[in-house]
Specification:
By secondary structure, the chain is α/β, with parallel strands linked by helices. 26% of the residues lie in helices and 25% in strands. The strands form 3 sheets. It has a 6-stranded mixed beta sheet. Strands 5-6-9-11-10 form a 5-stranded mixed beta sheet, covered by helices on one side. The protein has a two-stranded antiparallel sheet with strand order 7-8.
Amino acid sequence: MRVDILPIGDIHLEQGQSLDRIHMLGRFIVAKKPRKIIQMGDWSTWASLSPWDKGKIHIEGKRYVKDVDMMNQALGLLDVYIKQAQKEEKGYNPSLVFLEGNHEYWITRLVMDQPTLEGKISLDDVAFKYYGWKVIPFLEPYTTSGFTFKHYFTTGLMGRPISGEAPAVAMLRKTHMSCIAGHSHEFHAHEGVNGAGDKLLNMVVGCYIDPRYMGKIHFTHETPRWWSGLVMLYEAQGGYASFSKYDFDYIKRKY
């Protein structure tokens, strides 16, 4: 069956940020009504848990409970729009899938490093299940309509993320299947054909970060390479789809 899929790139909500882009995302969903909504991971930066900022000025004032609260506010807000879409179209009941990103995995890493926290903190603190989202553990594949979705795909014995100047090309060469990834915050797309003549589509879907916050991200100078916006896969089936990309500025004007 052909279905429209909305893969949402890394959102990286942080404490104190506006939820305007969640409102925009919600209105986009109401307008497009995708049958499957897949958030590709790193919904939050989880700045309170950053192993890179431990003991540094950047982590001052960050609290785990505030990160959780921010996530739950965003999920609750988005649920309002999904319910609005369901009222508009009888029978509309989108599949909601969350792929755990490397930033969410910081919770697991912290518990492994500090076993006394076991049972005290976990990703279950975020209300994904309450709002009907299926949670896929970090780097486990999620497959639908012939596409495999992961936060990122790996290569080599060390399991490093597939990257480089043309990661979508590399993903196809390494996996020999249609793959959709997030993580790098860049947009890349590449089409190919397998030995049976089936068309394949590989894509890195960019991010969904408000550009006004990009200049405040201290851990990288590569933000000019990032692409922020939303991608829709239309009539996905058998690992192939038509697609459209909607730049963040367009979404801001339209929704």
